[in-house]
Amino acid sequence: MHSSTLTPNGLTRRTMLSLLSLGAAGTGLAACAGSPLQRVAESTDDPAGLTASPAVSAPPVPTADAAGAVALYSALDGVAATFRVGPATVQDGYTLVRVEVSTDSDEEFTLSSAFGGSSPYTMRGMRLLSLRQSLVFPELGDRSDGLFDTISRLSSVEVFPVFEAVGDDVETVELFLPSVGVAVGVPVVSPEDAGFEAGEVLSVAEIDREADPGPYRLSSLVVATDGSYDTDVDEDSTTVTVSGDVTFGSDSTELSAQADEVLAKVVEQLTRYPSGGKLSVTGHTDDVDEEDYNRTLSEQRAQAVADRLGELTDLSSWDTSITGKGESEPRAEGTSDEARAANRRVEVLMTPKNPAEASALSTAATPPADQADASPGQMPRSVGPVGTGADGVDVRISDQTVHLSMESVTRVGDYVTGSLLLSAQEDVSITVNLFALPNELQILHWPASFTAAHSPTLLAGGARYLAANYLDAESEYVPVTNRRVRNIVPGEAMRLPVVWPYPGADTVTLDLPGKNLAARLTDIPVAQA
Prior knowledge:
- There is one protein chain.
- This protein has 7 helices and 29 strands.
- By secondary structure, the protein is mainly beta.
- The chain folds into 3 domains: 70-217, Sandwich (Immunoglobulin-like); 227-364, CATH 3.30.1330.60; 386-528, no CATH class.
- The chain has a 16-stranded mixed β-sheet that branches. Strands 1, 2, 3, 4, 5, 6, 7, 8, 9, 10 and 11 form an 11-stranded mixed β-sheet that branches.
- A hairpin with a 2-residue loop joins β3 (79-91) and β4.
- α3 packs across α4 (291-312).
- The longest helix has 22 residues, at 291-312.
- It is globular.
- The two termini are 30 Å apart.
- 50% of the residues are buried.
- The model is unreliable at 1-53 and 363-376 (pLDDT under 50).
- It is found in: Cell outer membrane.
């Protein structure tokens, strides 16, 4: 890692536990507060003065230049900067990516802790992504070279994050840079064409040999806004969890009038895999009543769900098993009403013979067939201010006004990525707790650390799309978003990049559903990478 000089005109020559008690310390509520999952989709937002927006188009997606670099125009600590990301190359079992950071501003800054994640003064917050393969690679280096070098109009800085080697068939990758953005379509080239000495960089990289290099599989969590079901999809399996309170009457094994509507979501997933596979239907209860009674109740409920699925669709290609776990495998700890409601459920786990069938259907369909949850439906009422992504909205944080906006998102395969922009006229101190999910959503990924900016979600019809996530070496859910946040300072906006599953459509709606911050941005155009 080293500094490089700029020409006089400024151009370079060469950037869970589920913490249900997370507080709002240091933060203020947005315009409204409430329990978003309890405010079911009874009506859509139609705030006074907000009319339907004309068709919007996304700006072009930056592509690699002749040197193999993708430019991100972003900012750190209020100072506008250019981050030239790439190329990437594979050497001795590792992937290295060049990141050059420069500025035309009169202000100076350093990278210091910008990319540290949970380890300050490193680049551990960066993550290498292969979104078309649903893979994420953690950064492995421990050196801080370049992170404390001054970036100014006269000097830029190059840093070289290190990751496990990507596959030989991977031609482009994405790089997640905390507080900056996601560089899409970074070319993977041979070491001879990289424009830097990969062997020399590796020789001084101080790679953490004890760290799990990955890669980890990305998964997608889609949740009904009325809490009736959620769908968790990874490369090898799909789990649809249906609410016992919606699917059954209280203490009953008889399916409710709403059951077919919820089970239709299971059928949609089953039809993605014509070749079938293994189908496991498992019932669960809360801790009320005796253990034996709960086990019997849960098994009978699982059987009722399996029987009805067999009436709704052909299960002859699926090897089906029925199990009742009673209270033995809670989804959430504790005896609160929220925890007990989450534990009353039936889980339908599909492990298909040919997982690639879903990808083939997704590629052929627009919107993707695996995003059936994006079907038309009513969105829940926002608990915060509403505006278009381009115009943005104002919220109050720590008794100060902060403007939120998002110009566009970029689609890569079955994912989209974009950055929430936060700007203010004065310094605003914030913590990651500001972006905590409401308890009803946090509880879905217990155990999990949830020390990250989880709350930016996407809405499509009656479904909410949480940030794409993965289970790390400690079996904690990690979203592809910031693990830490930087304070907002006057000048260029602070950015929170996020990767989500693609809901299907030409525009998306970003929703921060509350707890400590609530707002909604509509009509955000989707650009195609």
